[in-house]
Design brief:
By secondary structure, this protein is of the alpha/beta class. It contains nine helices and 14 strands. The strands form four sheets. The chain has a seven-stranded mixed beta sheet with strand order 2-10-9-8-5-3-4, with helices on both faces. Strand 6 and strand 7 form a beta hairpin. The longest helix has 22 residues. The two termini are 34 Å apart. The chain binds pyridoxal-5'-phosphate (PLP). The site of pyridoxal-5'-phosphate has 12 residues, from helix 3.
């Protein structure tokens, strides 16, 4: 197989170990003689995988008992309307830090008043707004912790006078999180915790059932939690294969030493790449330094080398770099260096930038 360094923004690189056991499980799941794509989700073997996956989430993130952990379909984009449907009675507050936040705002407006407390749209989302006031009378305050497209990140768990809701699609499991500061956390799995097809929702159970509107069965989070007997995300058929690969991905993460160990590696990767961007005279980073993401590193050619952009793209491609084209709204380059992206890939990209500088600057 061709040797590449995968910097795709999502879906993206997964741990080799997870891929290998997925391949095996497609042939034979749990010594049943049936592959994981073909088994019934109502079997003890599968119920064990569901329970273990939930336990891995609880162990890795230290999720307290009063929170439910759900695995749903529909992607993070479905949660853009599921969240307000379940939580917005009168007014919700949102922090607008990028395109994903803007999409979440659009959907919330179907359910009530939305106050955008601050936005960084004025500078193409290159920073995280600070010094804003969260209205206490809002039903909840919504943030996007990592802005995948612009490479900015809220790296600390903030205190919030109302329920705090976070889209953590692209930085979940990259660091420890103080779950108790949040009322609800959601995201698509396909950046840091698995393949596309499964969406995680961590929700404090006591905040549900408080809105006046009637909810469709599938929209109501309580359906997926279930009373006794519990539904455990199996009210309907769950995305079985995606959950299986997530299970294997989290097992890998745990074997690595969990989130503190992972965060240390992630910081080293990010530092290695940002240091090169700051040192190399041909490139500049686009995000404000203090808000730089450790997951998505965005950079462009320096002003005097603007005409070299496509040259560098071709140069990097020749050396096995995949997925480094920046999002069209930022331009330049973006290297997504999620959990499963090895340090060697980052070093290979840095070497590529240094070589390009030697030949061109
Ligand atoms: C990728 C992404 C989404 C969209 O996720 P889907 O699962 O494709 O709907 C939402 N928010 C953030 C921060 C993302 O990175």
């Amino acid at each position: 197989m061709k040797q590449v360094h995968n910097f795709n923004a999502g879906p993206c690189v997964l741990p080799k170990e997870a891929i290998e056991s997925a391949i095996e499980a497609i042939r034979d799941f749990d010594n049943t003689g049936i592959g994981v794509l073909e088994i019934s989700h109502r079997t003890p073997g599968w119920e064990r995988i569901m329970a273990e996956t939930e336990q891995l989430w609880r162990d890795l993130l230290d999720i307290p008992e009063e929170y439910a952990v759900l695995f749903l379909g529909g992607g993070a984009s479905t949660q853009f309307f599921n969240v307000p449907a379940n939580l917005l009675n009168k007014k919700a507050a949102y922090l607008q830090t990028g395109v994903w936040a803007k999409k979440a705002i659009k959907e919330a407006k179907f359910y009530g008043e939305v106050e955008v407390v601050a936005s960084s749209e004025d500078k193409n989302y290159t920073y995280i707004p600070k010094n804003y006031t969260i209205p206490q009378d809002a039903d909840y305050f919504h943030i996007t912790t990592n802005n995948t497209i612009y490479g900015t990140e809220i790296k600390e768990d903030m205190s919030c006078p109302t329920l705090l809701v976070a889209d953590m699609s692209s930085d979940i499991m990259s660091r420890k999180v103080d779950i108790r500061k949040y009322a609800l956390i959601y995201g698509g799995a396909q950046k840091n915790v698995g393949p596309a097809g499964v969406t995680f929702v961590i929700v404090r159970k006591d905040i549900l059932g408080k809105v006046d509107r009637k909810l469709q069965t599938m929209v109501d989070y309580r359906t997926h939690i279930g009373d006794e007997p519990k539904n455990n995300s199996m009210f309907n058929t769950p995305p079985v294969f995606s959950i299986f690969v997530m299970h294997e991905t989290l097992k890998w993460l745990k074997s690595l030493g969990g989130l503190d160990a992972m965060n240390k590696i992630n910081k080293e990767k990010a530092e290695t790449l940002y240091n090169e961007i700051d040192r190399n005279k041909m490139f500049v980073g686009t995000a404000q330094k203090e808000d730089r993401s450790i997951m998505n590193v965005c950079f462009v050619m320096a002003e005097q080398y603007k005409d070299k952009e496509s040259d560098f793209m071709a140069f990097a491609k020749e050396r096995g770099m995949v997925g480094i084209k920046g999002h069209r709204s930022v331009g330049g380059f973006r290297a997504s260096i999620y959990n499963a992206c090895p340090l060697e890939s980052v070093k290979a990209l840095v070497a590529c930038m240094q070589e390009f500088e030697k030949l061109n600057a």
